[in-house]
Design brief:
- Helix content is about 45%, strand content about 15%.
- It is α/β, with parallel strands linked by helices.
- It has an eight-stranded mixed beta sheet, sandwiched between helices.
- Helix 5 crosses helix 10.
Amino acid sequence: MAADGWTAESMPDQSGRTVVVTGANSGLGYEATRAFAERGAHVIMACRSLDRARTARDEIRAAVPGASLTVRELDLADLASIRSFAERVETEAAGIHGLCNNAGVMAVPRSETADGFETQFGVNHLGHVALTAGLLDALRRTPGETRVVTQSSGVHERGEIDFADLQGEAEYDKWAAYAQSKLANVLFAYELDRRLRAARASVTSVACHPGYAATNLQRRGPEREGSRLRLWLIRASNALFAQSPRRGALPLLYAATASDVDGGEYVGPGGFLNMRGAPETQDSSDRSYDRETARRLWTVSEDLTRVEFDLPEPS
């Protein structure tokens, strides 16, 4: 369903609500954090770099007087950091109304997380799986409907889950690994919602994608490779075709707050080639609706991250 003309100003009042946003110091996470703060939410900015997060917090407070923001360290490439973050938030927050699994890396040369996972699969998917598990009790205890929103990408449509080589050890292609991690995001979001429904929980799970938005995400791969040509091409493409990060954050904001969004849905921009425009609910790829793949990925993800969701398997 289209949300014609929907903007951040269309968000319902968020006063009294607490939202966790990963990667809140830049790009889509920064813009989402600012928009939540503008509508009265308290935002827990979950960021790997405390220095960058504090700079972003101060910038938002200067633009949004009275913005309620808390900076907390979270490294999605380190399960110990994720556990520490979740335990601290569980202790400090009276309730959590929304979790925005937004942070990620894109098309980087192969490397590994602190726990030995391929970085894109580890950060984009496994890190957010572990974080969601760590905060799920708090989400379930919070009165009213609460939501988990997981940021994917249109690139998920090119993704396949290679269970024989999830970590790209036998063969690694940076774009294939990115597409796999983004497909995993959607599969996880849908399976989580099915299990929450089976548990009759008041938490819903939604997936979204930003379309084509100009952020720092596109630059990190070429910067790590030292490719000046690719950096130039990305800057030119962003200038010509991309929408702003503020517009790119709208699907996440819509998925997190709109009353007509249901669990298990997929939200993205409804304009040209689904790359820009007002947010709407859409269909994701055929592979993303494969329940057997989703169940298998769920089990593998729990085993790798050593977390348990304590949710029934849907019939």
